[in-house]
Amino acid sequence: MKNLLTIAGSDSSGGAGIQADLKTFAAHGTFGMSVITAITAQNTQGVRAVENITATMVKEQIDAIFEDIPVHAVKIGMVSETPIIECIADRLRYYQPEYIVVDPVMVSKSGYLLLEPSACKALCQKLIPLATLVTPNLPEAEVIVGFPVKTKADMLLAAKHIINLGAKNVLVKGGHLESSADDLLFDGTTSTWFTAERQATKNTHGTGCTLSSALASNLANNVPLIQAVTNSKAYISKAIEYSLALGKGCGPTHHFVDLYKLAGWL
């Protein structure tokens, strides 16, 4: 069994963040571990408050894991402050895990700012160069590259820019496109497009966290990158198809669809 580490914020409603990551790791037959960077008070309607963990405590969590347990892949989610980003980058350069998936979480689905504007530069300079794979959606890509990303042509330009920042691969997610929901995987040379149909549901809370964790799980399980993206997109599509109408807002995706079907619960 592979051991995966998520470095991200906690979602008290369980649909995104650390909670979504650990569920996704488990659904892929891997053992999940966590380093919590922030505690959020949120539900399906939005984020009420965020309290960051100190960089010192983030460092202690990372060291505690790596000094004791082999880590086969790392997924990085919400990292809102520059000191936290610098700490994570320093420890990952030291421990050098084989796979690092960076999901540049910046704004919650309800519009709450999760990455301080001053920390974006640190994210681009410190974490993206360490990434095996970066997974921005279109608004996140726009913040990283500094120009509008509205079309497929824009997505390719943004992907090239992110590769130039030092990432090995980038998956630009096209869920915000008007004409389609296609994603672009770019490795600096080759572009691979992945098509997907939009699903008519508001219950998509945590989709970015879930997809990036599925990607980390597939990579840790030695699945080649293109197949890892294919597998992960199939997983998130099914999780959205069977999403949960939980709460009064945007409900979460269903991380254990296959297990529930096997048990006869669906």
Written overview of the protein:
By secondary structure, the protein is of the alpha/beta class. The protein has one domain: UDP-N-acetylmuramoyl-L-alanine:D-glutamate ligase, CATH 3.40.1190. 39% of the residues lie in helices and 18% in strands. The protein contains 9 helices and 9 strands. The strands form 2 sheets. A 6-stranded mixed sheet has the order 3-2-1-4-5-6. A 3-stranded antiparallel sheet has the order 7-8-9, with helices on both faces. Strand 1, helix 1 and strand 2 form a beta-alpha-beta unit. Helix 2 packs parallel to helix 3, helix 3 packs parallel to helix 4 and helix 7 packs antiparallel against helix 8. It is globular.
Task: Note the main attributes of this structure.
single chain; alpha/beta; UDP-N-acetylmuramoyl-L-alanine:D-glutamate ligase; 6-stranded mixed beta sheet; 39% helix; 18% strand; globular
Set down the secondary structure blueprint.
Layout (H helix, E strand, L loop, with lengths): L2 E9 L5 H11 L3 E13 L2 E7 L2 H12 L6 E4 L5 H14 L4 E3 L17 H8 L5 E2 L3 H8 L6 H13 L5 E3 L10 E4 L4 E4 L12 H14 L4 H17 L15 H7 L3
Parallel strand pairs: 1-2, 1-4, 4-5, 5-6
Antiparallel strand pairs: 2-3, 7-8, 8-9
Helix pairs in contact: 1-7, 2-3, 3-4, 5-6, 7-8
